[in-house]
Design a protein that fits this description.
Elements: H1 6-25, H2 32-39, H3 43-49, H4 53-71, H5 73-76, H6 82-93, H7 98-114, H8 118-145, H9 154-173, H10 181-193
Length: 201
């Protein structure tokens, strides 16, 4: 298998550092010089790949999304029953572990800034549309196999689950004493369990 080009590796390195800085300092406090320092390159190198700060941050949000889906590809391709896959989605999105917590912080920054930025609203719309479609496909499989008793629109069910994960994760990140990671896990898994045909048998 051919080795990725140095340019591709350098670009990915810069985007990873951008996500790290956004998570640590916030979108509004991000400076190209901080990204360059974390990546171990010059500011000029960052600008070689990304002419503007907006171009850099947009690419970083996309990079974060792609990595998020890639880390969970095994769930989507699993032969496990749909309800088991939904439980795995819950477990994989709990805000614990440095990589997942960083990704959640990056998303939180995107949401806040998207309130004021039409450009970021479009990015959020695209990413979230793709993510909802992925989750909806699991619900659709569960309805087809008879594992999920709900006859509701798979996309609406996906919206329920995604919004639950998002809302509770933000509470965890905000340090809520009432909404810990364990409490989030219990709440989300209870929602999944209630979808089972076995629970209404």
């Amino acid at each position: 298998m051919p080795r990725p080009s140095v340019e591709a590796e350098r670009k990915a390195q810069i985007l990873a550092s951008t996500c790290k800085v956004i998570a640590a300092e916030g979108f509004r406090h991000l400076r190209v010089s901080d990204v360059a320092k974390d990546a171990g390159v010059s500011g000029g190198t960052v600008h070689y790949y990304f002419e503007t700060k907006r171009e850099l941050t947009d690419a970083a949000f996309e990079h974060c999304f792609e990595l998020s889906v890639r880390r969970r590809r095994w769930i989507l391709e699993s032969d496990e029953p749909p309800l088991s896959r939904l439980r795995m989605v819950v477990e994989s999105y709990l805000p614990e572990g440095a990589e997942t917590v960083e990704a959640w912080k990056v998303w939180a920054e995107l949401w806040v800034e998207a309130i004021r930025s039409p450009e970021l609203q479009e990015l959020n719309e695209r990413f979230y549309g793709e993510w909802r479609d992925i989750v909806a496909s699991i619900f659709r499989d569960g309805q087809a196999s008879g594992d999920i008793h709900s006859s509701g629109d798979p996309l609406e069910l996906a919206n329920m689950m995604v919004s639950m994960l998002d809302g509770l994760a933000l509470q965890v990140l905000a340090g809520s004493r009432a909404m810990t990671v364990d409490a989030m896990r219990t709440t989300c898994l209870r929602f999944v369990d209630q979808l089972s045909t076995a629970s209404v048998g």
